[in-house]
């Protein structure tokens, strides 16, 4: 059973009670206590999504995904965020039946992006918020820049289907949406039939998920122009895990 409306509560409360929170721009900047010039600085960083290389690991034979990846370690108490050495992204097949079980090496997030204050403030802000829900001293953070396009007629944001990621918390933040229809986000209770669905339309809308309690997916996107002009959907996906990065 689906509900369309997500109750609006403070993010930490919503995560604790419901396993998810949806933040629009004003709520995002206020909840994370981002500086006043953050949106302007982020807008400059968002141009980097136009330069993402192809994802060479799609097992469904598609060519609709472009991607960069980086890892960070956040010391919550010490208030530090340090980029880790570039490493492969790995998930067990229990969480990703399509792409799990092997190391996927993606091109790294560009240094000018990974070191920018708008980027580090955002990642650290989410980590501090999640530490209010699950008390930890250290988060192991993976960041993925995604572009899903419709050059082949259809793009699949989650080709693996409804899934969990094997982490503590997940962030899916919409960066841009251009010339597409579809792309509905669906979140299900991991242990029951309840769920919500909605369309993320506005840039800097962020969906926060307790990965142990919910599973999630996004439906395919299609061109929204009669002439078939290519569209795209850009997102930043962040995962926060305690105890270490996922590895074989």
Description:
- This protein has 248 residues and is of the alpha+beta class.
- The chain has a single domain (2-241), classed as Jelly Rolls (Sandwich).
- It is built from 5 helices and 13 strands.
- It has a 7-stranded antiparallel β-sheet. It has a 4-stranded mixed β-sheet with strand order 1-9-8-11, with no helix packed on it.
- The longest helix is centred in the middle third of the chain and has 17 residues, at 117-133.
- It is globular.
- 36% of the residues are buried.
- The mean pLDDT is 91.
Runs with pLDDT <50, length 5+?
none
N to C succession of SSEs:
EHEHHEEHHEEEEEEEEE
Largest sheet: 7 strands, antiparallel
Instruction: Write the CATH architecture name.
Output: Sandwich
CATH class descriptor: Mainly Beta
Q: Portion of residues in helices?
A: 10-25%
Number of helices: 5
Task: Provide a concise account of the structure shown.
The chain has 248 residues and is α+β, with helices and mostly antiparallel strands. It has one domain (2-241): q2cbj1_9rhob like domain (Jelly Rolls), CATH 2.60.120.620.
